[in-house]
User: Fold Oligosaccharide repeat unit polymerase from Pedobacter alluvionis.
Amino acid sequence: MMQNSNPTKLILTLYLPVLVSYSLINSPIISYFMAWFGSLFIFYTTILSPVAIIKQDLPIHKQIMRPLFLTQLVFAGFMCTTSIFYFMDHLGYRYLTEINYGAQFKENEQTAIIASCQRICLLAHAALVTGMLLVQKQHIRAKSIKTFEDDDFLIWLGIIVFGIGSLAQSFSGLSQIALPLTLVGISCAAVLFVKGFKIKNIKYLGIGATIFFLNFLHASLSGYKEPIIINIIVIACVFFPYYKKLILYLAIPVAYVLLYFLPTYNNTVRQSWSGEVSAEEAQSEAFENLSTKNKEKIEETNWGFLTRRLSEIEMFTQFVDYVPSHHPYYDWEIVENSLEGLIPRIFWSDKPNMETVSMQRVYDAGVAHQTSTVSAKTRPVVDAYLSFGISGVFFFMLLYGMLVQHLSDKAEEIFGGYELGCVIMFNSIFQGLWRGNNFEFMFNNIFWGYVIMWFLFYLLRTIKVLNPKF
Assistant:
């Protein structure tokens, strides 16, 4: 890996597939695949290639929760690579099998729009990584040192922040504080679980495993896919430095099981939302529905998930078709709404509901109907495009990459290192930045996350878990 901290040549290389995909704009199918493979090229170039600029303080497998690895893989993985299922469905394929036998596919307007969206996603991917590389610090001077040589402090840290987070959930309007703190507690549990497993420490293993698996059970009863996937990502990343080969061997089969069975399982669990059955009863029925007798139903539900839920490119194409043809670019309107959302309601009793504000552009574009229960919130790339078009995507995603990297480096600096700073603090408090959200919610998460990070820093200093490093 390159040790030269000047990333100019590497950054320029990232835009080669962007230029090639735009040069093929008159051949939408080829242009799409060039843009799709372009993201794979960026993954390889920035993570595995000889020219990748990786921090030298730790081996690669021991720093995979830093933004260049985890945030990039999750954000760009969902944004860029999952669209392949929707595009193959558009071309007349299902599970790589042609379903329109004898019918020759003809390119149409939708083909061009999908290709255009994929090119925009590739540009966003390149801009995201550019921002990370521009501000990434090769050497971070830790300002703190742990008081204790053992990891017992993680038990108390997890209990304290989990308790504060649980208490905050009891008060309306404190969800921005409750969720990050709860996630810090869960991350402490995951680290304890892995360390207990590694060094055969029954105390660490018992406490960590109990908290983590109780949270996983709660996620499995929620009816949402994302909490389950996030829990698996977290435990896999924490285990990876110690059991690299095992995690790599398990990655593909686990991903297959999740993508194949999870949609059907969650659809069944959601029956409990109506109140007719309990979450536990719905879960039991969900496991019954996963039998081989329901193979056709599972595959039908799964394909719908892969094409229209896992990938959000269909929604993106609707916005691109709507703006600017039927609605001018929003300019700074979305950003202004997001900044207004930072004002606590206690100081502004008439503050607009950010959920209502953010969903209005979704309804206006016809992406979802007001009577629909489907969540169709925009993502950062979509809001960036709606604001200023392609130039807005580059600008905002460049800032996004710079911000994510800065927050990670700052967390390592003030909390005294990678494990506590990056693994536990950054990837818990700012976990929402893995995929991003609409601007209204994301600005709020970043602002309050920053406040929480410094609050925890001063708390740990006050209770002497951390001491200044001179």
In short: The beta strands are 93-94, 97-98, 144-146, 466-468.
